[in-house]
Specification:
InterPro entries: APC_K+_Transporter (IPR053153). The protein is of the alpha/beta class. The protein has one domain. It is 39% helix and 24% strand. The strands form two sheets. It has a two-stranded parallel sheet. Strands 3-4 form a two-stranded parallel ribbon. β1, α2 and β2 form a beta-alpha-beta unit. α3 packs parallel to α4.
């Protein structure tokens, strides 16, 4: 499950991910600084989330490559398993939709043809 911050959509995504009853559940975030890491860690603890949170340091916040590298590592660890990637996505008005979710779209495009991989979007409606 991909996480940028703890918000309503991420909390919904956590509930959904837990409902799948996976053998392993991991929340993954790409952070650009120790301050961002500390804030996300504190927010995660504040909401008493029991899902393991793994943070990847990348000062340039190259989210797509960092996420793909980690997914490939996870696949190498259990190559017979199917990996489900859960992506919370903002749903906005049609006019502003292109402003949001650029990282999510990039990751989804890269995962589309990846074997043994399922991508699930959890919508976050913005009014």
């Amino acid at each position: 499950m991909l996480v940028g911050s703890v918000n309503k959509g991420v909390l919904q995504a956590v509930k959904y991910a837990e409902s799948l009853r996976p053998d392993r559940l991991l929340a993954l975030s790409v952070v650009e600084s120790p301050e961002a890491r500390a804030k996300l860690d504190a927010d995660w603890a504040k909401h008493n989330l029991t899902v393991d949170l793994e943070m990847i340091n990348d000062e340039f916040r190259d989210i797509t490559d960092s996420v793909m590298t980690r997914i490939n590592q996870l696949d190498d660890e259990a190559s017979d398993d199917i990996i489900t990637v859960i992506i919370p996505e903002f749903v906005t008005s049609l006019r502003s939709q292109w402003l949001h979710n650029q990282s999510a779209l990039s990751i989804k495009a890269r995962l589309l043809y990846r074997p043994n991989t399922v991508v699930t979007s959890v919508p976050i409606v913005i009014k």
